[in-house]
Amino acid sequence: MRCSTTATPSRSPATNAACKFWIGNIKHAATVGMVLARLVVDGQEQGHHWFRVPLRAKENEPPLPGITILSSDPKGGIQAHQVGGARFTGVRLPREALMARYSRIDADGRFSSTLPDANARFVRSIETFVQERVFPLSAGARAAELAAHLTWRFAGHRGDPPVAGPKGSSERTTVPRPAVPGPAALPRASWLVLDVLAACREMCGSQGFHSHNQIVTLRTDFEVNVTFAGDNSVMAYQVARNAARSPAFARPARTLAERVEQDLGELWRGRPDGSFTHDEAVTLVHARMLGLIMSEHDSDPQVPQPIMDDLVADFAVHRLGAVHRPLSAEREKIDFLAELLAPVPEIVSAPMVDDGYLAAFSRPA
Ligand SMILES: Cc1cc2nc3c(=O)[nH]c(=O)nc-3n(C[C@H](O)[C@H](O)[C@H](O)COP(=O)(O)OP(=O)(O)OC[C@H]3O[C@@H](n4cnc5c(N)ncnc54)[C@H](O)[C@@H]3O)c2cc1C
Question: CA nearest 228: which of 54, 23, 13?
Fold first, then answer.
């Protein structure tokens, strides 16, 4: 038994003309694609499933019959891989192409699944995207860390030399990371990374624009993380829609993050149509993320409590609309954070970190 493809864009009738754009590495390199598609067996819709679809016999060879590769190049940001689109026209697959953790098609073409219905199968299919979302989170944390380090080193050229010197140091500590990445974590973290990169670039003034100083390049490379693997706003709306329908906890709120979530939930449930605004949805994902960071800190503190208090207060002012409270930027705290955020030396190439940077920069061209 073999399956064959028909593409159905949104709710229009089946067609062979639909295509999927912006697929990483498909233009020249990919030999196999993982395709999420609706499975129809004997005319009956069985929900979304993953299929392993061979695309070309070898890297850089033409696509297999029935597959048309289209170009999305040139894209902005990370230059190391190509992107493209794919159109399938009656592509035939063996039944083994169906990823079979939950669903199977036997040799007689009978479908069976351990999941009860199409909705459950869709949710399980989408869950496999978690790793796709962890990857931008962890890469984003490294980018923010690097930009903060470069900015701290640049501050040293302006008459306030850094005391701890992490450049070249092989010892490193890790920044707290979210324990449960998912729809709430990706939007907040990837927006935050862009904010950190923009703030660092600005604090380095014109030197932040120097292409060799990495920050502008990081910004271009990481811009895509608010769109790829699920648009940030759309994911924020998903989180808000769930929160509007069912409160996350029944007890009184214990933390700032919980208070924000509770207030928003009550506000939304009080509206006749249960609607929410974009800004409210974004505030909710910020609150969820703050909740995760705070519970990580409670179970495994990586910064002293006064620094954590500063982080929470700063976050609350900028993301949750809390009342401003002055923060004290003491030397001890700055040195601690400089050490904590020291990137691995291998990823630091900006000449801006060198002590003689300004002298080298002002030499005659
Ligand atoms: C460099 C790059 C690499 C990629 N790699 C891959 C890959 O390897 N594999 C893959 O499958 N895909 C890949 N993608 C595609 C990516 O997942 C999609 O681009 C992404 O999910 C956003 O979809 P879209 O581009 O259609 O934007 P749209 O969904 O059209 O979004 C455009 C705007 O509309 C808004 N919007 C959308 N829906 C709603 C709504 N319901 N309500 C309100 N506002 C809404 C969004 O917030 C956004 O501001 C890649 C994309 C890029 C840019």
Answer: 23
